[in-house]
Amino acid sequence: MIAGIKRDHLRFKQIVKGKIKQNLKKYITQGELIGRQGKDLVSIPLPHIDLPHFRFGRKQMGGVGQGEGAIGTPLGPGDEGDEPGAGNASGEHALEVDISLAELAEMLGAELELPRIQPKGTRSVQSQKYRYSGIHTVGPDSLRHVKRTYREALRRQILSGQYNPEDPVIIPVRKDYRYRVWKNVIRPENNAVIIYMMDVSGSMGDEQKEIVRTESFWIDTWLRSQYTDLEIRYIIHDATAREVDQDTFYHTRESGGTLISSAYKLCNEIIEKQYPVADWNVYSFHFSDGDNWSGEDTKLCVDVLRGDLLPKMNLFCYGQVESRYGSGQFIKDLMENFKEDERLITSKIESKEAIYRSLKDFLGKGK
After folding, report:
1. Which helix (H) or strand (E) holds 66?
2. CATH topology for the 190-363 domain
3. CA proximity to 46, closest of 20, 21, 22
4. Confidence grade of residue 123 (pLDDT, cut at 50, 70, 90)
5. N- to C-terminal Cα distance for the chain?
6. What residue ranges do the domains of the chain occupy?
7. Whose CB among 205, 222, 244, 254 lies 3.0–4.6 Å from 248's, allowing a Cys bridge?
């Protein structure tokens, strides 16, 4: 019976995953998962799915559950004279299922046919972890295993005839104590950092920021599945740049002009001070509407990219979010100056529907 239930539950999980895969493109472009994200899980609404249920036959039926009823009484629609009216029963609800971010990343990789990332360089950061590997009869009180100690005391009293089921008092003595044993485990890890940059000048509205938020969620999801340790930094800029937390990055409302070079300079400072390229895989994603203050600042951006940022990075991605107020010139300048450099990838994001293609542009190189 239990094996059958487990088999049915496994089958149901496979059905759910199949439904999610069918609608993954919709979730990618609509961004409705972001607000449902927990630490390791995402809650996904599935409005069209048949839940397993029991169906009773009509033979040998008893009462209708209320009052007396005769065997064989048919149950069907009400009398012909019944008038339609407001119902008092609950309607159909969307089924919400939890799925891990790792499973979601696996689906994303399959949907977009993303290659596994090959970390650059030969060095890796070593992390030290503690792993409990067994039980011992000696150790510090902080590592005493309560259940094992109780079990040994109970076994001793039963074997010695001291255990009284009518008065089950279990008192451990010194030889009953059991302790956890741990050891250090040194594990090499390829660490990565993502630095997000976003233009928050007056030409970037709420719609553009929502696109950035949605695409960033999926980038995070994929890169977290590729690296053991992932750090994320956020930079916003208009005429000046500053580092902020995640909430400020997504919800800041600012206005004013745009000097993109201010963000690139700050990004370079963060990398130089905290993320040596021998130990870290560095990714940067810059989102803007393509409207820079002047051609001189664009030239400065090109110089910073070529001389400072690109040599330190696995990948630099520029996503241009279409805005009615932006000129859209910056992506053309980048494409003209870096058309042969595979470390820099550009993508036009005209709308939410373009997020799907943009993710393929940014992550499809396996860098």
Report:
1. none
2. Rossmann fold (3.40.50)
3. 20
4. very low
5. 49
6. 1-52+94-113, 125-186, 190-363
7. 244
